[in-house]
Amino acid sequence: MSIPLLLQEHSLPGLYTIHFLRTLDFGTKIESFATDRCLTITASSSGFPTTRKVFINGVEITKPDLFYNGLLIIHGIQGFVSHLSPFSCLSTTSLDLPQQPPPTAAFSIMRSMLKEAMTMLRISGYSIVALAMRVKYSELADLMSVTLFAIDDESIFMDGGNGEGRGHAYVAELGFHIVPNRLLTAGGLMGLPIGTMLPTMEGGQDLVVTSAGGEGPLTPMRINYVKVKRYDVVHNSRVVVHVVSTPFHRLDHPVI
After folding, report:
1. pLDDT confidence of residue 94
2. Nearest to residue 14, comparing CAs of 178, 157, 145?
3. Residues 239, 117: contact at Cβ < 8 Å?
4. Are 207 and 224 in contact (CB under 8 A)?
5. How far apart are CA 181 and CA 87, in angstroms?
6. What is d(CA 70, CA 242) in angstroms, rounded to the nearest whole number?
């Protein structure tokens, strides 16, 4: 028995409180950190919705929210869950990635690169961004390439540090932080002049380079007046991810 694999199979990307688990449809499957391995969520039909017992692959959660610090949730279970089957994700009620066969080789490559990027984000402190990408997975898989601007998990849960809910808004507005069909690595991004418009996945909503890069740490590159903190935290043949200090704000006036 592989202990590391067992841990991956028992871990889910994202935050699933006991309250949220109780709201899922009976038999919902959620893909774990182990590729193509899903956990099945069921709940008792008796009792009030707020007190229903929740089961993971038939094993009851007896100590819900045993540990929760805003970044990680641990539930205690009654018993032991064995290794998951390769067919564990086969279901009509599932939160896993689409399983339809890719129509072209290019589509297949994009799917593979997206999965690779999401895995790297999960283990690098950007698990919520990875989860948000899963939600938009079918849209992203249709693209040829992606440039994504991310914020880390801590910033999301701290609401961007300003108490205005901007961190949580980032997840809802992920499309505004994605430049489709352009692979802008660090060199290409920093070479853009002030005023460059970058179309996003939000139709008619562009990002604007408000401070050019390459002028040293005292004058960092800014997009929509938001500082780019790190470049190329994830980079493969189809996906590149840069880190920004806060979620982007929409501009009400042109950049001069």
Report:
1. 47
2. 157
3. yes
4. yes
5. 33
6. 23
DSSP 224: T
Distance between CA 242 and CA 248 in Å, rounded?
Answer: 13
Domains of the chain: 3-77 (no CATH), 105-244 (2.30.180.10)
- pLDDT of 194 above 90: yes
Task: Judge whether residue 80 has pLDDT over 60.
Answer: yes
Which pLDDT tens digit goes with each residue over 34-62? 888 888 888 887 667 778 889 898 888 99
Q: Which residues contact 219 (CB under 8 A, 6 or more apart)?
A: 211
CA torsion 133-136-141-146 (nearest 10°) is -60
Complete DSSP assignment for 43-73: E-SSS-TTT--EEETTEEEEEEEEEE-SS-E
- Strand bridging mode 239-244 / 146-150: parallel
Burial of 98 (0-12, 13-18, 19+ CB in 10 A): exposed
**Concatenated DSSP letters for 147-206?**
EEEE--HHHHHTGGGTTSSHHHHHHHTGGGGEEET----HHHHHTPPTT-EEE-SSTT-E
